[in-house]
Amino acid sequence: MRLERLQSWAERRLPALTRYRRHESLPIELHRRRIYIVPTGFGIGFSVLLMVMLAGALNYANNAALLLTCLLGAATSTSMLVAFRTLNGLRLSHIHAGHAVAGQPIELTLTLDSTRTRSAIRLDVGKSSSAFALDADVATYVKLALPTIHRGWQPLPRLRLWSSWPLGMFRAWSWLYPDQSVLVWPQPEAAGPPPHALTDDSRHMRLHQGDELAALRDYRAGDPRRHIAWKASAHHHSLLVKDFEQPQNRPQWQLDWRQLPGLDNETRIARLARWLTEAQAQRRHYSLWLPGTDIPAGSGPLHYAQCMSALAQLP
């Protein structure tokens, strides 16, 4: 905690530490001017111990103790260089965001690469942290959970890359501030009335594959041979096939912003989000009308994502 308070104070007081608070476009590559390094608590304690060892070795003229102290000091200095090189040249090339409703964490996938192998690196976003290692010339995908509060576009916060490799005596870190936002879907309401469905006429009757024979029809290319009605075909001028498709009453849902008069915008959005979620869960066909947007009927995950994203972007 003391180290974090000291770091925050230094960023406020020293302009050189805050020059990368502005948004940056991807890719972002770390270099020596944007990597900072400080001793850890363990490193400070070990340095004090080395000073005591040095004083004792000089006082008693103990060459072996003096040699050991110098070797440990050299190892400490080398670990500082290794910690710096762990981050130097690291590149963030891409950030991909998943889908989440407001109030739930959204998953971020960050693509990092390097020209050499690196170990023991950590990436922090808010209170979420992830450790990873990189192989030379191979992209590494790091996943993090970003908390969300409200729907709409949410800019990414600053990302902190840091490492205390290899001995934990020095902590090297750098800040990344990508110029990118993630889209957060609206939170559906808990309960409410069902949506309006189109009339159950033949135009909205879907076919499903049943187990019982529905009718005989002419053979079409691609029909399985086991469905051919051989006995019936013997008395007919062409092959007949057993048809197991039967109409299923699945009315299309017509979700319309104008069907919800008297409600404020956020309540309308929450209700439409609930209807979309229910339609997706029931595998229905549905359309969505919003001010300035008219999404035709469809189904499936891509259609659901398109509709929820349109809701999330409403003013």
Describe the structure.
With 315 residues, the protein is of the alpha+beta class. It contains 6 helices and 18 strands. The strands form 6 sheets. A 5-stranded antiparallel sheet has the order 2-10-9-5-6. A 4-stranded antiparallel sheet has the order 1-3-4-7, with no helix packed on it. A hairpin with a 6-residue loop joins strand 9 and strand 10. The protein is elongated and about 115 Å long. The two termini are 40 Å apart. 20% of the residues are buried.
TL;DR of this structure?
With 315 residues, the chain is of the alpha+beta class. Helices cover 29% and strands 30% of the residues.
Q: Quick one: how many beta strands? A: 18
Straight-line N-to-C gap: 40 Å
Round the mean pLDDT to the nearest integer and report it.
Answer: 84
Strand order of the largest sheet: 2-10-9-5-6
Largest sheet: 5 strands, antiparallel
Keywords:
6 helices, alpha+beta, single chain, 29% helix, 30% strand, 5-stranded antiparallel β-sheet, 315 residues, 4-stranded antiparallel β-sheet
